[in-house]
Design brief:
Number of helices: 14
CATH superfamily of the largest domain: Fumarylacetoacetase-like, C-terminal domain
CATH topology of the largest domain: Fumarylacetoacetate hydrolase, domain 2
Shape: elongated
Keywords: Hydrolase, Metal-binding
Pfam families: FAA_hydrolase, RraA-like
Protein name: Fumarylacetoacetate hydrolase family protein
GO molecular function, one term: hydrolase activity
Number of domains: 2
Oligomer: single chain
Number of strands: 28
Low-confidence stretches: 1-8, 269-293, 527-552
Distance between the termini: 76 Å
Mean pLDDT: 86
Strand content: 15-25%
CATH class of the largest domain: Alpha Beta
Length: 552
């Protein structure tokens, strides 16, 4: 079946009179689009969202199958995105997940075109980059939602006859019914509204003369037919006196084409990139720890169990004294910070450079959008505390991305709101001024200086109430195991001191005390009570030993 029957949930009354809406029951009141929803697309971009996020498209952007779309003069990055479109048939407000699909009247094909040259200027809203006339082709026919299972739908896209996208709704991070139920929590989905449910991997750039076709179907079952759009070159220029002009950088080229290779760009880190801003933009799109060993759950647990002071002592034994991020204090002293570094560099504010690098989708925003699960955003702010280097919105974004924490040797703006987010944050203090008072966000995922020490992408960052230490990835297992062994030894010493023994000969241990300690660790040795495992479990009336022992 290729269209809604009379018995299907009603979308709205009356056929549309505008040919752009020929495939729909009527002109939609709302078009809601999902930013990222397919696992294949998320894996391509190196980040997987925890929850769906959305943007609106105007109904004036709808086009019919067979229509053309203009690539505006002076632009290069008009990208296609084949998608499954849902047409709401019955009003949905705070519907349950189980009931959500019954509010969908039909599904069909859509192409969520976007002009990436304008994406940075839109700052995430996509108003201009995806709201242009003809940027939402839909159709050509509707599939009755009652006849299909929401996980059984397939979406395919062809560019000039070549299949470039092929995925199913079963490969979505967020099931179709979840999108309906989630959106209905926030506003009423009305009959005729359209939800664009995101695109799988394979989206790329279309050139003037290219023909893009999208089809949604159930293999062997009903189909939307092929939605056909032809790209043509526009002649009209944008007027810079009225608003910002299109601009493309290597980040936008990478996103639009799907990869640096497809965009014809040098590999990340290649000296051929030349432009540091472009290099930083491309680097910010990939996990900072690419190529570096990831922290296993077991290793994270070990790092969380040992104090930073113990790690610092072990690093010093190995000749590493300059591994402390000095001058930063935690907003949550009770929380432990463990993760791998994702670096961001600010340079001193210079007004002309802030215009070119501080506005739009700058390096700071790119890093907070791209930070991955278990990573720590480490910011070089030169110890300049005379402005904020982040605020609550960016802290929320990092928290939503699963980041382990944030470390900056600059200030924090809206400090109380940042603390309320709950993510571990270390900074030089609070300051009410915005970033641009002192800093220009310049580049990312490169070697930086933070709090007087060097931090590289992928370095292991550990923090507690004492401060933050940087551990080279190659040493982390050796260092943490040695630190845990030392903690075990120090806990035993603390018990003996608590029993009334003097520290002389015990801290550090002489041969006699060492023999007792080793004997207590042999299998079957009698132990009075549970052995304290960390300093936090030492007898409360006993102060921690002073730095007299080697490495302490």
């Amino acid at each position: 079946m290729d269209e809604i029957t009379d018995a299907a949930p009603s979308a709205t009354a009356g056929p549309p009179t505008d040919p752009r809406f020929a495939a729909l029951p009527a002109r939609p009141g709302k078009i809601v689009a999902v930013h990222l929803s397919y696992a294949s697309r998320a894996d391509q971009r190196g980040r997987r969202p925890q929850h769906p996020s959305y943007f609106f498209k105007p109904s004036s952007s709808v086009a019919a199958s067979g229509d053309t779309i203009e690539r505006p003069a002076g632009t290069e990055l008009l990208a296609f995105e084949g998608e499954i479109a849902l047409v709401i048939g019955a009003a949905a407000r705070r519907v349950t997940l189980a009931d959500a699909w019954s509010h969908v009247a039909a599904v069909t094909a859509a192409d969520d075109f976007g002009l990436y040259d304008l994406r940075a200027n839109d700052k995430g809203s996509n108003v201009r980059s995806k709201g242009g006339d003809g940027y939402t082709p839909i159709g050509p026919a509707l599939i009755d939602a009652r006849l299909v299972h929401p996980d059984a739908l397939r979406v395919r896209t062809w560019l000039n006859g070549d299949l470039v996208q092929d995925d199913t709704s079963a490969g979505m991070i967020f099931p179709l019914a979840q999108l309906v139920a989630d959106l209905s929590q926030h506003f009423t989905l009305e009959p005729g509204d359209v939800i664009l449910t995101g695109t799988p991997a394979g989206s790329s750039v279309a050139q003037p003369g290219d023909v893009v076709e999208v089809e949604v179907d159930v293999p062997g079952g009903p189909s939307s037919g092929r939605l056909v759009t032809t790209v043509v070159q526009g002649a009209a220029d944008f007027d810079g006196d009225l608003g910002s002009l299109p601009q493309a950088d290597d980040l936008q080229r990478t996103d639009a084409w799907g990869s640096r290779e497809a965009a014809g760009l040098p590999a990340e880190g290649s000296p051929a990139t030349g432009d540091p801003a472009s290099a930083a933009a491309s680097a910010a799109e990939s996990p900072a720890s690419a190529g570096a060993p990831l922290l296993s759950d077991e290793l994270r647990a070990k790092l969380a169990a040992v104090p930073v002071a113990g790690l610092s002592a072990q690093l010093r034994k190995r000749g590493l004294d300059n591994v402390h991020i000095d001058g930063v204090r935690p907003l949550h002293p009770e929380s432990k910070l463990v993760g791998t570094a994702r670096t961001l560099r600010f340079v001193p504010n210079r007004e002309d450079l802030f215009v070119s690098h501080g506005a739009g989708y700058n390096a700071q925003k790119r890093v907070f959008d791209a930070v991955g699960d278990g990573e720590v955003v480490v910011i070089e702010a030169r110890g300049e505390a005379g402005s904020g280097t982040l605020g609550d919105i960016l802290a929320i974004r990092a928290h939503a991305q699963g980041a382990a924490g944030i470390v900056t040797d600059g200030g924090v703006r809206d400090a109380a709101a940042v603390a309320a987010v709950g993510i571990p944050v270390y900074s030089s203090g609070a300051h009410p001024a915005v970033l641009g008072r002192k800093h220009v966000p310049w580049d990312a995922d490169l070697t930086i200086a933070c709090g007087g020490t060097t931090v590289q992408p992928g370095d292991v960052i550990v923090g507690d109430a004492d401060g933050v230490v940087v551990i080279p990835p190659a040493l982390v297992e050796e260092v943490v195991d040695a630190a845990l062994a030392q903690e075990d030894e120090d806990a035993w010493i603390a018990e003996r001191v608590a029993e009334g023994h003097p520290v002389d000969g015990l801290f550090p241990m002489n041969a006699a005390w060492r023999a007792q300690f080793e004997a207590s660790r042999e299998p079957g040795a009698a132990v009075d009570g549970e052995r304290p495992a960390t300093r936090a479990q030492w007898p409360q009336h006993t102060a921690a030993p002073e730095d007299g022992q080697a490495g302490r």
